Amino acid sequence: MHADSRHRLDDYTAEEIQVFQPITDHVRTHPGMYIGNTQERGLHELLFQLVRTSLAETRAGFGCTIWVTMNRDGSLTFSDDGRGFAVSGPPHLEVAFTQLCQRRRWWIDQCWYAVVNALSEWLWVETRREGESYELYFEQGVATGAPHAIGSSPNSGITLMFLPDPVLFGETRFDPDTIRDRLREYACLNSGVRLSFRHSETGVEDIFEFADGIPSYVRWVNVKEHPWHPDVTSPTKVYSAVTCLTLWIYVI
Known about the structure:
This protein has 252 residues and is of the alpha+beta class. The protein folds into 2 domains: 3-208, Histidine kinase-like ATPase, C-terminal domain (Heat Shock Protein 90, 2-Layer Sandwich), CATH 3.30.565.10; 214-245, no CATH class. It has helices at residues 3-10, 24-29, 32-35, 40-59, 92-98, 112-118, 176-189, 214-221, and strands spanning 18-22, 65-70, 76-80, 99-102, 120-129, 132-139, 142-143, 148-152, 157-164, 194-199, 204-208, 236-239, 242-245. The strands form 3 sheets. Strands 2, 3, 5, 6, 7, 8, 9, 10 and 11 form a 9-stranded mixed sheet that branches. A two-stranded antiparallel ribbon has the order 1-4. β2 and β3 form a beta hairpin. α4 packs antiparallel against α6.
């Protein structure tokens, strides 16, 4: 990434938001267009899209940790240590969670916060940026008020809590094993990023962080096997300017 591009990304303001169209009603009417379906797969896609959005933030050089908590009431709490949302100027926070917009935060168009919000019975978000912390609450995708300052914060990032709307989903209970498996895969594909998952009912917390990325995943998949050698073989070859990495380990 060029230095001037990084500078522009870090200095985005609310005025740089380009609103394309309201999407709350459309998402609630046609959820399958955004998350595939309203069954178990689509339910978990709500979380996984949030994770992927924050991973894009880490790849841009902002933040390195993502936290996910499965709460007792069926809701999820999601948090990262990225740049957070700008709160100066127009109602940026409400726009980001209710409309399809182009945000400088991720380079590419993103609407996943608005999609998750639209498909939730309720959603609460806190943004931390430039030493300030603001919160906003939504019900079925609609803000119940204006962003409210809740104090100062030495850190940056976002935290949101949401409960999928049972009117839209056939099943609103998240599966902890599904979440663990996917977070582990994301950690392996994004070396150096830490992903934390906590299950409130059991009190168990899992931390996924792999310094060498995919080779760690290969070793984990074969943890119950008996490898012939301790190292993962990983030859690399370039085909038409595309680098291909193949990994394997011999097991008995």
